[in-house]
Amino acid sequence: MLSGTTPIDRAEKSHEEELIRRIRDGEHELFYELIRPYERRVYSAAFAILRNEADAEDAAQEAVLKAFTHIRQFRAEARFSTWLIQIAVNEARMRRRKEHAEIMEAIDNRANQDEEGSYVPRDFADWREIPSETLERTEIRQKLMEALASLTEKYSQVFVLRDIQHMSIEETAKTLGISTASVKTRLLRARLMLRDLLAPGLGGSWSGRMPFEKGAKPW
Amino acid sequence: MVMSCEEVWREVSNYLEGELDPALRAAMEEHLRGCKHCTAVLDGTRNVVQLYGDEKMFELPSGFSRRLHRKLAENMPRPRGTAFGWFVAAAAAILIVGGFEVGSTSVVNRSLRSEHAQPGVNIPGDMTVVVAMNGKNFHVPGCKFIHEKENLRTMTASEAEREGYAPCVRCLRKYLPSVSWFHSPFGDVDSHSADLVEAEDPGEE
Fold it and tell me: Is beta strand B137-139 parallel, antiparallel or unpaired with respect to B128-132?
């Protein structure tokens, strides 16, 4: 699960560095090749934060455009994908803040107070291994997205970067400007909250109602 | 070492990350063997990580790539080097520069008003900029580093460059190749951020 550097990684990085050098030298059309492997990740990062297809696509486009405009500022010691996702996350966060500035601030303040205490699982439904084919069902993906959308921003962002984008703990911390300890705390809580939300449905027969629909959430 | 349920829940994430030291891991596994609740929590949390981490989780909207590439194409500088392009560029240079000498590379020779300044890179030619009457640089309108705010002239970036003005190292720093930008991602491009390295503006008014 943790990131390591393989010969394939190094070859890809070297290929990307070459592309970036040529793009900087004026072969702008190579930028398409550079970003093609990351289109899905850019979109998913934006979607997980904005939770709306149209807004996510706008933010993803803008992020890619900014990456192109600022390609000279990319520093080779970082991974291009990390840099690109950072831009996408910031673009999406900026748009989200503009729309929900006051509401999100209130929610996040409340969530900040909660972070110190331990999270106690609310449900102990047995959830055995489920095949990834489950994800081919649209309604399951929808349930997962609803569960993710119910988390406050501070938890969903850490979860998105670490568990969806597969960034390392350190990269996640750097991207969000928080400590690795905070990443771990928030990640634990996000995972446990999602499990609480999903286990009763995915562990047994799906009831059609998400647990969080029953009442106010404790976080 | 005996672990309580609460202690196990605190370590579930680290367990999945493989970050527990062997003693703690062993104690946790010992607890899990006798605790159905904690086993359910661990299994479920592992499933959460696996499901959301699966690439099938997010599908790109239909036509996403096509629209993205079109947007990029609209915003990329035009490709250089076509015969027609060179012809148009050369004709434009001759018309604009008039009696001035045109360099052999058919690029307009821009001698800057400040010998310390450097020309910008990829500045959109139609960008609206301002110059001060006795200044040497051009700025984004509203730049707070324009010292002489009266007697400003508005023009396009191309015109400013042709007249020998250099881009302001503050408000147009992103177009200057040698000005070091910080690496962290730009939520928005705010060239006036105080956290950027401030250098003395060469030859500023």
Answer: antiparallel
CATH number for region A1-116: 1.10.1740.10
Q: What's the pLDDT at B86? A: 56
Which residues in chain B show pLDDT less than 70?
78-111, 114-116, 177-205
Q: Does B49 touch chain A (CB under 8 A)?
A: yes
Q: Cα-Cα-Cα-Cα dihedral of B33, B34, B35, B41, to 10°?
A: 0
Inform me whether the C-beta atom of residue A116 falls under 8 Å from chain B C-beta atoms: no
This model of the complex carries an ipTM of 0.73
Q: Which of B8, B14, B28, B51 to mutate to test the interface with A (most CBs of A within 10 A)?
A: B51
Q: Return the H-helix or E-strand segment holding A202.
A: helix A180-203
Could you read off the pLDDT of A70-87 as tens digits, one per residue?
998 888 777 898 899 989
Tell me the whole-structure pTM to 2 decimals: 0.59
Of A39, A166, A199, nearest to B44 by CB-CB distance is A199
Would an 8 Å CB–CB cutoff place B197 in contact with chain A?
no
pLDDT at position B203 is 39
pLDDT given at position A142: 82
Indicate the CATH number of A122-219 among 3.90.180.10, 3.30.70.141, 3.30.1050.10, 1.10.10.10: 1.10.10.10
Enumerate the domain spans of chain A: 1-116, 122-219
Contact state of A90 with B186 under an 8 Å Cβ cutoff? yes
**pLDDT single digits (tens) B2-11:** 889 999 999 9
Please judge whether B9 and A29 are an interchain contact, meaning their C-beta atoms are less than 8 angstroms apart. Answer: no
Three-state SS sequence of chain B: CCCCHHHHHHHHHHHHHCCCCHHHHHHHHHHHHHCHHHHHHHHHHHHHHHHHHCHHHCCCCCCHHHHHHHHHHHHCCCCCCCHHHHHHHHHHHHHHHCCCCCCCCCCCCCCCCCCCCCCCCCCCCCCEEEEECCCCEEECCCCCCCCCCCCEEEEEHHHHHHCCCEECCCCCHHHCCCCCCCCCCCCCCCCCCCCCCCCCCCCCC
Query: Cβ neighbours of residue B147 under 8 Å, at least 6 residues apart?
Result: B132, B135, B204, B205
CB contact under 8 A, A199 and B13: no
* Among candidates A31, A91, A121 on the partner chain, residue whose Cβ is nearest the Cβ of B41: A121
